[in-house]
Write a structure and sequence with these properties.
Elements lengths: L1 H17 L5 H9 L3 H13 L17 H8 L5 H7 L11 E3 L2 H7 L3 E4 L2 E7 L7 E8 L15 E5 L2 E2 L5 H5 L3 E10 L2 E12 L1 E4 L3 E9 L2 E8 L7 H13 L4 E5 L6 E2 H11 L7 E6 L2 H10 L5 E3 L3 E2 L2 E2 L7 E6 L6 H9 L4 E6 L7 E3 L2 E2 L16 E3 L1 E7 L14 E2 L16 H11 L15 E4 H4 L5 E2 L5 H6 L1
Parallel strand pairs: 11-12, 12-18, 13-26, 18-19, 19-24
Antiparallel strand pairs: 1-22, 2-9, 3-4, 3-25, 4-5, 5-6, 5-7, 7-8, 10-11, 14-15, 14-23, 16-17, 20-23, 21-22
Helix pairs in contact: 8-9, 9-11
Length: about 475
């Protein structure tokens, strides 16, 4: 599993080579001053942050000794304030974040979150207004929302009787228990219709493989997969789905990533290998770290910065379709690992993108723990803070990775509230367009500008689930080095 090992090796070598070895006096001094968390934040970002060279307070020569560093850290009693202060301009770094409990962070990367199961998008009511509305995209099976009278396409305008705005949406929609105020769209005017739905969040594991089926149209057998998250725990199940499509003799594939905020780089590489298969051992993507990491890797082994197409999935053979063209559905919520699949495949096959411009997340992160190597081994037992800073940029085999403003679709077709359709059905506009392009029987559906509203955000982005990350280092490999 060459690609996986390379990804892991990058983090392992970096951890063991560049960690600024603290002596026990430094550790004790930070602990005595109650600065353990702040000390961890500064040292982790100093070593790994992609834009370390652009933050003066993170410079290697900024502090002569631990005492000077501590004097600086005392200005930040709130660890989150320090974390934000050490980041570059938010317009450049839109995606680094930190948590107080790494257990919840780790679970989220496998699709396990505290949620009610209503997946939604938020848009502005009108230009210049701060008021927003929500619309249901899909309902996660076996969730609280799945037991309530709410479905795809429903509109909500408030929570607990309060109108949603671009400044209060977080506090309202992140409540553990809340009541949605449903509404109607009357010619562009959004009003409450008096209906309500009470929702309660609980521990929820979402299978990212929402739909998979074969659509027969003329001489074409079209595989369709709606895939909503790059969660490594489901990689073998995803491979089995590709096995079913392969056995069915599919001639084409529509990969629906419209609500996929991303996830594991390793999973993205595996998915690309399932779609193709004829490029085993070739470069799928390349990683670019900060200057000191790049210098080390280029000197020691440049191959460690490359992710390769693979035929192996933890001892199980990858089920590959050997396609030379793929159709991918996107929205503004298609981010990170979703964009990596699109951009990575473009170096080798024809990628027909249908939908809206994607998020524009061409950078990846890794979980940093407060430990001697920033891995979870020997983690500090005194707290559970962890960071998820941006540590690398990813480009494809042709060295292209400049899509900060998103990947532009081949055929633009934004979802319309007037006709969201039923996911997986041929009547659904985006899928219908893809099938029409495959068979040559249908023109692009014309969009109605009056029914398309300015996108604001979605629930996955709200909860930092629009990520692209490399896997944490396994302890066994760490001991072997």
């Amino acid at each position: 599993m060459k690609s996986t090992l390379k990804i892991i090796a990058v983090f392992l070598f970096a951890s063991l080579t560049f960690y600024s070895c603290q002596d026990q006096d430094d550790i004790d001094l930070a602990k005595q001053d109650n600065l353990e968390v702040q000390d961890f934040i500064w040292k982790g970002l100093n070593q790994y942050y992609l834009w370390q060279a652009d933050v003066p307070d993170l410079a290697d020569n900024r502090f002569a000794n631990q005492g000077q560093l501590n004097s600086f850290l005392r200005n930040y009693t709130d660890p989150f304030e320090l974390f934000d202060a050490l980041r570059v301009n938010p317009k450049i770094d839109r995606f680094s974040w930190m948590v107080k409990d790494y257990t919840a962070l780790e679970q989220s990367f496998q699709g396990i979150t505290t949620a009610d199961g209503m997946e939604f998008g938020l848009s502005y009511k009108s230009s210049g207004s701060s008021e927003i509305f929500g619309y249901v995209r899909y309902i996660v099976p076996n969730s609280d929302a799945s037991k309530k009278d709410i479905k795809r396409g429903d509109i909500f305008v408030g929570v607990n009787g309060t109108q949603l705005t671009d400044s209060n949406y977080q506090s309202l929609l992140n409540l553990e228990n809340y009541t949605l105020n449903l509404g109607d769209n009357n010619g562009g005017t959004f009003t409450s219709n008096g209906k309500t739905v009470a929702l309660t969040k609980g521990v929820l594991a979402e299978n990212p493989i929402a739909i998979h089926k074969v659509i027969e149209s003329g001489s074409h057998k079209i595989g369709y997969i709606m895939y909503n998250g790059f969660y490594a725990d489901y990689d073998k199940e995803l491979n089995n789905v590709f096995g079913e499509l392969k056995a069915a003799g599919v001639t084409d594939l529509v990969l629906d990533l419209r609500y996929n905020g991303g996830g594991s780089v390793q999973t993205a590489t595996r998915l690309a290998s399932m779609i193709t298969g004829q490029f085993d051992g070739k470069v799928f993507s390349k990683q670019e770290w900060n200057a000191k990491f790049n210098e080390y890797f280029k000197k020691e082994d440049p191959e460690l910065l490359k992710n390769y197409f693979t035929k192996d999935l933890e001892g199980q053979s990858i089920n590959s379709l050997n396609l030379s063209k793929v159709y991918i559905l996107t929205t503004k919520s298609s981010a990170s690992a979703s964009e990596l699949v699109i951009n990575g495949l473009k170096s080798y096959i024809d990628v027909v993108q249908i939908g809206d411009v994607t998020t524009g997340k061409n950078v990846g992160s890794v979980t940093l723990y407060d430990s001697p190597t920033f891995t979870k081994k020997n983690v500090n037992p005194n707290h559970k803070y962890a960071m998820q800073p941006i540590v690398l940029k990813i480009v494809n085999a042709n060295d292209f990775g400049e899509y900060y403003d998103g990947l532009v679709p081949t055929y633009e077709l934004k979802e319309s509230l007037s006709n969201l359709g039923i996911l997986g059905e041929l009547s659904e506009p985006l899928l219908s367009t893809a099938v029409g392009k495959i068979t040559g029987t249908q023109k692009l559906t014309k969009k109605n500008p009056s029914l398309v509203y300015k996108y604001f955000t979605d629930n996955k982005a709200m909860n930092n689930l629009n990520q692209m990350f490399i896997e944490k280092a396994p302890e066994g490999l760490l001991r072997a080095l």
